[in-house]
Design a protein that fits this description.
- With 173 residues, this protein is of the alpha+beta class.
- The protein has a single domain, classed as Chorismate lyase (3-Layer(aba) Sandwich).
- Helix content is 21%, strand content 39%.
- It is built from six helices and six strands.
- It has a six-stranded antiparallel sheet.
- β5 and β6 form a beta hairpin.
- The two termini are 20 Å apart.
């Protein structure tokens, strides 16, 4: 069932959707700042691997169980010095901040990968030894085809929380 447009446009889709399904959501910022671009993120943002990019990494919980590490990546040349580069949660939303800077959503590409967890992922998500993760890499581009947001979501491959559908015509970064 598609996500209601009011939910899709909320400040936190995860928090709103979880509450709607009677799940107690939580989120906390793990890191916000500059870091070198990994090879797969660099390709999405069209920068060189190792170039400094803005990373905003947070963990989401459902009923106090860690379920997701979500990291938003932005090109420092486009978003450095903006509120997107600041360490706190962006209000009302990242989407609104991107749009306020003049970028309109054009299209996105997603890649789904199942793989063994890194030590950081296993520790953060409190995974059992040998448990795999699912990595969803969503690269979003504005109408001028500039890469403006890459979202890497890491979830336990064994913990399904809920399905979120897209509402036609209302896609966001």
């Amino acid at each position: 069932m598609p996500t209601d447009p009011a939910t899709r446009g909320s400040a936190s889709l995860f928090m709103t959707e979880a509450e709607r399904q009677w799940i107690r959501p939580g989120r906390r910022m793990l890191y916000a700042g500059l870091e070198p671009a990994s090879e797969h993120v660099a390709a999405c943002l069209r920068v060189r691997p190792g170039d400094e990019i803005i990373a905003r990494r947070k963990m989401m919980t459902a009923n106090d169980v860690p379920v997701r590490i979500a990291t938003s990546y932005f090109r420092a040349d486009l978003f450095g010095g903006t509120r997107i580069a600041e360490p706190e949660f962006v209000k009302p939303s990242l989407q609104a901040a991107i749009e306020a800077l003049g970028y309109a959503f054009g299209h996105a590409e997603e890649t789904l990968t199942a793989r063994p967890a890194t030590r950081f992922e296993a520790d953060t998500l409190e995974l059992d030894p040998g448990e795999w993760v699912v990595q969803v890499l969503r690269a979003s581009y504005c109408t001028e085809d500039t890469p403006v947001h890459t979202l890497e979501t890491i979830c336990s491959a064994a913990r399904h929380i809920f399905t979120i559908g897209q509402v036609g015509g209302l896609d966001e970064f």
